[in-house]
Amino acid sequence: MSNKVILEIRAGVGGDEAAIFAGDLARMYQRYAVNRGWGFKIVDSNETSLRGYKSFVAQITSVNPGEIYKDLKQESGVHRVQRIPDTERSGRVHTSTASVAILPEVEAKEVQVNENDLEVTFSRAGGPGGQNVNKVETAVRILHKPTGIVISSRAERSQYANREAAMDILRAKLYEAQREAEEKKLGSNRREQIGSGDRSEKIRTYNFPEDRITDHRIGKKFHNIEKIMEGNLDPIVKSFQKISS
């Protein structure tokens, strides 16, 4: 098992509040990674003006192979939040969603990618990073034509490094797609990790007014929601470990 995973978060239903929630989840996982002593590198993000993300991709690394995926694999799915947004003037509780995917990185030999199947384009990365990032076309966008999967990477300072990061993500997604196809052939009803982002596909609800997080798969409730959002995911992680052990 790899010592690296890809974390992908996408805003779902709920407009600006969904993007803000996606940003909250990204920061939660980043803080948890720091607490665990893991490496956390943002690969690509589509940030909004309200401290949120329409999409967010990061690479998490550990010195121990399999550790990260073992602890975070249950995070994949649709997360739902219920709270009063800062932009809400009437005090009404809003419901929004964001989807999370945890994908283990795979070695190049495990997934064969035909270069003729790729459409690679380059652009200026923009944002922080100095003159090289902003003036040279270092950002990479890869389209895998057979599947329609599009990967972008702009965090590194060179085209080569960004292309390698994008290829790592592409291989992880193709590997996951292959695994799902194999499981379906065996009669598995395993649902796709991301789903449509609809509220009905939720795996977990974050209810801020009642200070409660409910994981709907194991029927367990967790309190101290602010502490959990600050990166204290241990109660949730350990609950799933007890079930699988």
From TrEMBL:
Q: Could you tell me which Gene3D superfamilies the record lists for this protein?
A: 3.30.160.20, 3.30.70.1660
Q: Which domain of life is it from?
A: Bacteria
Per its UniProt record, what InterPro entries does this chain match?
Answer: PCRF, Pep_chain_release_fac_I, Pep_chain_release_fac_I_sf, Prokaryotic/Mito_RF
Q: Look up keyword Protein biosynthesis and say if it applies.
A: yes
Question: What Pfam families does this protein's entry cite?
Answer: PCRF (PF03462), RF-1 (PF00472)
Picking any one GO molecular function of the record gives: translation release factor activity
**Annotated stretches, region: Disordered:** 181-208
Cellular component terms per the entry's GO annotation: cytoplasm
**PROSITE patterns in alphabetical order:** RF_PROK_I
Q: Which UniProt keywords apply?
A: Methylation, Protein biosynthesis
Which stretches make up the Prokaryotic-type class I peptide chain release factors domain?
124-140
User: What SMART domains does the annotation carry?
Assistant: PCRF
Q: Can you tell me which family this protein belongs to?
A: Belongs to the prokaryotic/mitochondrial release factor family.
PANTHER family from the entry? LD18447P, PEPTIDE CHAIN RELEASE FACTOR APG3, CHLOROPLASTIC
Protein name per UniProt: Peptide chain release factor 1
Traced from the root, the source organism's taxonomic lineage reads:
Bacteria, Candidatus Colwelliibacteriota
